Target: Peptide transport system ATP-binding protein sapF
Amino acid sequence: MTKILCVKDLSYTNSRKTGLFSAPRTFVLGPISFDMVKGETIAIIGNNGAGKSLTAKVLAGAIRPSSGSITFITDETSQQSSHSHPIRMILQHSSSAMNPALSLGSVLHNTLKLNTRLDEAQRQEKIKETLKLVGLLRDHYYYYSHMMSDGQQQRAALARALILDPKIIVADEPFAALDPSVRSQTVNLILKLQHELGLGFVFISHNIGIVRHISDRVLVMDKGQIIEAGRTEEVLADPKEVLTQKLVQSHFSLVERHASLV
Model:
């Protein structure tokens, strides 16, 4: 298996004041270490405030880590690509992530113009290919965010992430705002793209059902630390840590409640 990512001793310290006269509150993330291979999905689960979203932002480069390293391992082909950016991120609320004053085509065009050396014709062709890849029509080039359904907005966010040919997508609760039918379609699309493109996914979620369905490995976080890790089916079938046991039990209790109402 081809290793594409090596995260070693990644740490970030965040201090912020919650009130005018209160002392600063400090949250320490890490140290976190893990590797990823081509085509793998790693899920990160945990309670609110565990550091999951913060980890996603550090991995995607939105926040500079205090220490540690993130090493992306490329082959000769990807090293020679003029428009390959190894890690891209999809946010939870795709509708608010897109500038309402710009059409989807403008967003994708600007992304390519700012980050690649492609000329106008090449940019247009790349946009056309990417829209098709995520299941959108050529006409969606002219759509603004308010003109798209939730599912289309999620596909638009995926298109913006894929337009720079990343090898890894960091997705922070990408299905939380979607209804079940659209969520199912989006999950299937991601699995299809992963198979076709060999993408790696870092998937932040509270939904144990989806984690079980799409992830190969799972990292359980609590208070900025990874407290349990392993193959998804093994961790969820026989959780060792109390927090992991509670998360799994909470999921099955919710499933049982839902089944009793049907």
